[in-house]
Amino acid sequence: MGITLTENAAQHVNSFMQKRGKGVGLRLGVKTTGCSGLAYVLEFADDIDSEDVVFESQGVKILVDPKSLVYIDGTELDYTKEGLNEGFKFENPNVKDECGCGESFTV
Fold first, then answer.
1. pTM given for the model
2. ∠ Cα 37 41 44 (to 5°)
3. Cα–Cα distance between 58 and 61 in angstroms, integer?
4. Could you tell me how far CA 53 lies from the centroid of its own chain?
5. Tens-place pLDDT, residues 24-50
6. Which DSSP category does 19 fall into?
7. HEC string of 34-85?
8. b/e map of 21-36 (b: 16 or more CB within 10 Å)?
């Protein structure tokens, strides 16, 4: 399946990477935390690790470690603005439940 970005997400990532002046793409993963068990980890990557699985969407490289991929395969990443809040929104088809605050999830 893979990981994809919406046009809004890709524009935000490209804009931020241009401001940074460096980077090869976006690193996406999960960590164990929160009341539901897993939380997303998102950071800009300056290099590609040998074990990374690399996807490309809307001209942006998305790097995922193999252990995280089983939890997020098929995810679409969007960038939204709702009132005073803005940020990335994850549409993950693997999620079975989320905590009330939306910070963690279960697959």
1. 0.84
2. 175
3. 9
4. 13
5. 999 999 998 766 688 889 999 999 999
6. H
7. CCCEEEEEEEEECCCCCCCEEEEECCEEEEECHHHHHHHCCCEEEEEEECCE
8. eebbbbbbbbeeebeb
